[in-house]
Amino acid sequence: MSQVDSGSPVGVALIGSGRMGAYHGETLAQRLPGARLVAVADPAPGTAEKLAAGWGAPAAYTDPAQAFGDPAVEAVVIAAPARFHTDLIVAAAQAGKSVFCEKPAALSLGDLDRAIDAVRAAAVVLQVGFNRRFAPDWAAARALLDRGVLGTPRLLRSVTRDPGGFDPSWVPADTIFNETLIHDFDTLRFLNPGAEAVEVYATADALVEPAWKDRGLLDTAVVTVKFDNGATGIAEACFQAAYGYDVRGEVFGSGGMATMGDGRATGMVFSGATGRAIDTARSDQELLAGAYVAELAAFVEAVRTGGPAPVGGEDARAALAIAKAAARSVRENRPVTIAEVAR
Amino acid sequence: MSQVDSGSPVGVALIGSGRMGAYHGETLAQRLPGARLVAVADPAPGTAEKLAAGWGAPAAYTDPAQAFGDPAVEAVVIAAPARFHTDLIVAAAQAGKSVFCEKPAALSLGDLDRAIDAVRAAAVVLQVGFNRRFAPDWAAARALLDRGVLGTPRLLRSVTRDPGGFDPSWVPADTIFNETLIHDFDTLRFLNPGAEAVEVYATADALVEPAWKDRGLLDTAVVTVKFDNGATGIAEACFQAAYGYDVRGEVFGSGGMATMGDGRATGMVFSGATGRAIDTARSDQELLAGAYVAELAAFVEAVRTGGPAPVGGEDARAALAIAKAAARSVRENRPVTIAEVAR
Amino acid sequence: MSQVDSGSPVGVALIGSGRMGAYHGETLAQRLPGARLVAVADPAPGTAEKLAAGWGAPAAYTDPAQAFGDPAVEAVVIAAPARFHTDLIVAAAQAGKSVFCEKPAALSLGDLDRAIDAVRAAAVVLQVGFNRRFAPDWAAARALLDRGVLGTPRLLRSVTRDPGGFDPSWVPADTIFNETLIHDFDTLRFLNPGAEAVEVYATADALVEPAWKDRGLLDTAVVTVKFDNGATGIAEACFQAAYGYDVRGEVFGSGGMATMGDGRATGMVFSGATGRAIDTARSDQELLAGAYVAELAAFVEAVRTGGPAPVGGEDARAALAIAKAAARSVRENRPVTIAEVAR
Amino acid sequence: MSQVDSGSPVGVALIGSGRMGAYHGETLAQRLPGARLVAVADPAPGTAEKLAAGWGAPAAYTDPAQAFGDPAVEAVVIAAPARFHTDLIVAAAQAGKSVFCEKPAALSLGDLDRAIDAVRAAAVVLQVGFNRRFAPDWAAARALLDRGVLGTPRLLRSVTRDPGGFDPSWVPADTIFNETLIHDFDTLRFLNPGAEAVEVYATADALVEPAWKDRGLLDTAVVTVKFDNGATGIAEACFQAAYGYDVRGEVFGSGGMATMGDGRATGMVFSGATGRAIDTARSDQELLAGAYVAELAAFVEAVRTGGPAPVGGEDARAALAIAKAAARSVRENRPVTIAEVAR
Q1: Which residues of B touch C150 (CB under 8 A)?
Q2: Per-domain residue ranges for chain A?
Q3: CATH says C132-289+319-341 is which class?
Q4: What is the rounded CA–CA span in Å between residue C317 and residue C342?
């Protein structure tokens, strides 16, 4: 990895500027003094130029290869659709760029191994967008674990519910496992440090959009994950919650329990004619704003110091293996071991 | 069922005066103007006499048959060990007494059918001690369901964690399913009205007392229950929580979510040098005091009016079937249908 | 005081059956095995008879004197309008009946002294309806004080907000001090045990019904109470809160702080399309149900044992003196000492 | 005000680098891409140099005049002791620099007028460090007010409790009013938009350090503020809370109530052997981190756009007038009008 001068901001290119990408671009341009957004790449004509101009980024590209060839770019943030992730990681690494990639880093374990190999060969940093590790509640729970306060984990829970409004025709099969629950699989691992998943059982159904069940779209799922230290984790997801974005967690150990995710936007409580209402976050970007910034700050710091990323390729692989086992469990209606899918 | 004069309290005998029985006895004697505790039966020499004297109950017996033969007794509350429940229900019913029986009403589906048949033949009331239905949070959630506010349930959760301190040598195999999680199985049904369980998958381990695993004692379990309306329920239990008794629930439907069980003893919050602490209940009798009284009030009312009990033999059977499927699922490490166990 | 047989319920007559009286009557008839409602007195034709019949009380009177002459009556619960309280207490005491009187026990300190003297001469029990002392949050805070956990009180707060709907033409002047804030004055004393008020400053206005200000109706008030241990208490009240009945408190001492009154009806939280809502109590009878029963239980117990009431005539006098000083403070726009009003 | 190029960061000098100053310096250097820390001034030998080096600021001065003369400095953040504020504001303004000044902007109304005049003459931006306006809960409550949801304010409350550890010999008389409660006075005004204080009554005592009372040190105070729209606000403060920093607020209007300040560091809740504990903030910098950054971001934006500061000299004057009236009220033990002190 090229030596980075600790005094100047890290030059970062944004690859892909959809909803999440745009947020990352804004963070790199306006919220992270340690980073400098030096390029935006997006295939849609005019998009990169417009965004780059608004953010004061000097370069705009329609082809990510241009960003990989730009000497001002030390690192890239990949927020393109998931099916392109592997090839982008490989190309970036081969160009000597460190990589922050949105989850999932790949859609198959084979692809992921290819990406990990490229990163290793280039000795660049790879961080995966498991943002929940950086959300304050979760970081606080992990701190309690690390201090031994919670003892040995016995039961864990991680929940993701989206606010809905998705277009069923755009959602690939297994998305609930590969793209949504993968956050929860990583969270379960994060909250059970040192343990690894051994067996997975999952149920899933099309309860939001029953008409799409025949085409394989599953929108509601529960996954039971057995770990090698005896703990059981439960991950559950639904693509539509009437009350908005819902991200919660729980870790129960021999020393006590931590619960995470009260869904609050602020601590303000309003009492009015229709009752008393908590001031709640409606979008992931409101709920997880701090985590989205913190994960990029950690990435930039890792690039600057050459240190390892706080959540990297092996973590991505472990979470993807659980996703693969979960999908197979639903198809075969039986518990599936990690060994079966992760050879 | 014998006609009960609506003006005078219902005469009730307590059968079994252990921890839970003693609480029920106190409720019948001191908290329920509609009931009159007319007898206490306990096999331990002197126990029934001492308790009856303290509560002002006119009769004390060492043999429950004496209570069944006492004409002042219109109804009995059975709080003896679970293995005696079936025979006691049958005997009480045959004597024309209405029965409130602590859960589980039986340890096998065959026994339970025998009890249900006896109750039906005698046309007495049978209520089972699924107290959580009477806890304010749960009743409020059910009211939201009944009003349609929560829509169709998609994901449900019910948790029971005991404060520990149990003697492993006294705990029969499958207790976590038959005696602890049976509350949660009933709760999942209560929160998914009209739906029935079709398939069950369970994991369980001995994490509190690992040395007892070989003898079949499982102290920590997670059970996934698939319902015929597509909803999935999760029931989890552990015999030891460092923070005391923990009973919680959640129902997530197309219209929103209700969460139940904040564990508070009161709404008082103390802020001191070691932080801010919620005033929490430490025992089930503190946490569920209202529910314990309310379930007996409902029973006494059912006896008085001859109406059906709010939770009866068929509910007991449905919950026990899930328990049986869960225990088999652990032994065979596969999902087990209700049809397999509940023929 | 006549000796009461500890085995049989205390015979109680209800004097006055308005909103609060009806609740107390129901409690005596149906919620308190230790009490027996033996008579109902109400001047409205037919009212006492109808209520007595419904509650199974043997006697109904239109004149309270009849209840005072009834030998089955050991104690009375006075819930008539405040202006009749003193004479009723005196008459009941002279007839040898113990008295539970709704607050305020009198509208002037002279009247109150007359009532206290009559009670003392007759050696009967007098309890005043300061129910907040019996509400779980407040009792828990007081327990922390008694255990020394909160240290010496420095700042205290007590809030009462009614849900509105009052008829301004029915509300006597100074009602906000004499009938509403009198609860808060007692609460401040309850949370600052051993200390006494020395000076009072109050502001008040007609913000709910500005048109009635000229006629002396004040509907919103803040009262600052200085105590002889240096602590300052704040009592505030408003006759109309858009969100229903609101009763809260706070005591901040050298050891920490306790806050009371989260307004919850249950611990259930509903998350729906319009946000996340706490399940809140809308009426005092929902919010304070437990306290209303507990205060009568304590009274009945005091009558039974001949022991002193937990909150009696001297407490009523201390709270009323604060109310008088507050009313004068508003009129004269200056701090008023307790010594000025309580000679 | 000099035209600022919207594309480049605003050059800011830090004047005074004590506890709060150091935090502001860090924010300017590391948390605000829109600002550039170009100088640090502190009279203690070596301090400015060391801090400037650590933050990468190009200049370090021992005399603030040097910073005022530095052409790279467009704006200054004044965090020197309160008694120097006025002269520093005047000097900065005269040098054409915009000013962010920690509260209080002055210790007398005369001084404050002098500062306001200098700022006006120089046409620079002046913002005062009333950070609570920028804290999320308070901003959310104000948004409800601005949308009309809360109706017309009737009762308001603002609380500040410090964690203690102060050195009594360093605290000037009236500090609790001029430097602590001044936050609360501004908050009451912020939550009662358009209304102004007309009369103030205050009580105060030395309850934390009774031995210092003779020397005029008051450490615990309650201030009642009457507003011209009929609302009453209560501000209370104490220099020592056993549980750490405590900042809360409440606004109750005709449409409902908003409460602010749950003291949480995160939403994580830990349940352990000693109870259930909220994860609470211990320092102001933890509790108000977001507000400290947001107020400087707003200042930098005002400098950049030449727009008015969100909270300026007139707000500082209104809050200081309440502080002056409160101090006089304590000395004279009577309500004091704003007109008396603010001529």
Answers
A1: 270
A2: 10-124, 132-288+319-341
A3: alpha beta
A4: 9
Under a CB-based contact definition with an 8 Å cutoff, are residues C101 and C78 in contact? yes
- Predicted structure pTM score: 0.94
Please give the C-alpha separations between residue A280 and each of A332, D38, D235, in angstroms, as whole numbers: 39, 39, 28
Q: CB-based contact (8 Å) between A343 and chain C? A: no
Residues in CB range of C43: below 8 A, 6 or more apart: C62, C63
Q: Can you tell me the ipTM of this complex?
A: 0.94
Interval D162-181: pLDDT, tens: 999 888 888 888 999 999 99
CA dist A174 and A308 (Å) reads 30
| Residue B1 pLDDT > 80 | no
Q: Where is D337: in which H helix or E strand?
A: strand D336-337
Q: Could you tell me the pLDDT band of residue A3, with boundaries at 50, 70 and 90?
A: very low
Q: How far is A310 from chain B (nearest CA, A)?
A: 30
Question: Which of A273, A274, A280 is facing C276, going by the closest CB pair?
Answer: A280
Q: Does residue A335 sit at the B interface (CB-CB below 8 Å)?
A: yes
| pLDDT bracket for residue B321 (50, 70, 90) | very high
In chain D, what residues touch C151 (CB-CB under 8 Å)?
Answer: 242
Beta-strand (E) ranges in C121-272?
Answer: 126-128, 153-161, 197-205, 220-227, 232-238, 246-253, 256-260, 264-272
Residues of B in contact with C247 (CB under 8 A): none
Tell me the per-residue pLDDT of D181-216, one tens digit each, with 9 for 90 and over. Answer: 999 999 999 999 999 999 999 999 999 999 999 888
pLDDT in tens, A215-251: 889 999 999 999 999 999 999 999 999 999 999 999 9
In terms of Cβ atoms closer than 10 Å to its own Cβ (0-12, 13-18, 19+), residue B339 is exposed
What are the Cα distances from residue B20, in Å, to B23, B289, C127, D47?
5, 11, 35, 69
Beta carbons within 10 angstroms of residue C66's beta carbon: 16
Task: Tell me the C-alpha distance between C333 and C341, whole Å.
Answer: 15
Query: Is residue D16 a contact partner of residue D41, using CB atoms and an 8 Å limit?
Result: yes
Cα A285 to Cα A19: distance, rounded to the nearest angstrom: 10
Residue B323 has pLDDT above 70, yes or no: yes
- Kindly give the residue spans of alpha helices, DSSP state H, lying in chain C: 19-26, 47-55, 64-68, 85-94, 109-122, 136-146, 175, 181-190, 284-287, 289-305, 313-332, 338-341
Q: Which CATH superfamily groups domain C10-124?
A: NAD(P)-binding Rossmann-like Domain (3.40.50.720)
Q: Which two tokens stand for residue A143?
A: 């701190």
The pLDDT tens digits for C172-193 are 889 999 999 999 999 999 999 9
pLDDT of residue C7: 63
3-state secondary structure of B191: coil
pLDDT band at D7 (very low <50, low <70, confident <90, very high): low
CB contact at 8 A, B225 and B322: yes
CB contact under 8 A, A268 and D140: yes
Q: Output the CATH code of domain D132-288+319-341.
A: 3.30.360.10
- Contact state of B273 with C256 under an 8 Å Cβ cutoff: yes
What letter would DSSP give residue A212? G
What average pLDDT does range D235-251 have in this prediction? 97
Convert B169-191 to b/e letters by CB count within 10 Å (16 or more is b).
eebeebbbbbbbbbbbbbbbbbb
Per residue in A256-314, pLDDT (tens digit) is: 999 999 999 999 999 999 889 999 888 888 889 999 999 999 999 999 999 899 999 99
Better-scored residue on pLDDT, B78 or D9: B78
CATH T-level assignment (fold) for domain B132-290+319-341? Dihydrodipicolinate Reductase; domain 2 (3.30.360)
Sign of the torsion angle spanned by Cα atoms D231, D236, D242, D244: positive
What does the alpha-carbon distance between residue B226 and residue B335 come to, in Å, rounded to a whole number? 10
Tokens 């209800």 label which residue?
Answer: C14
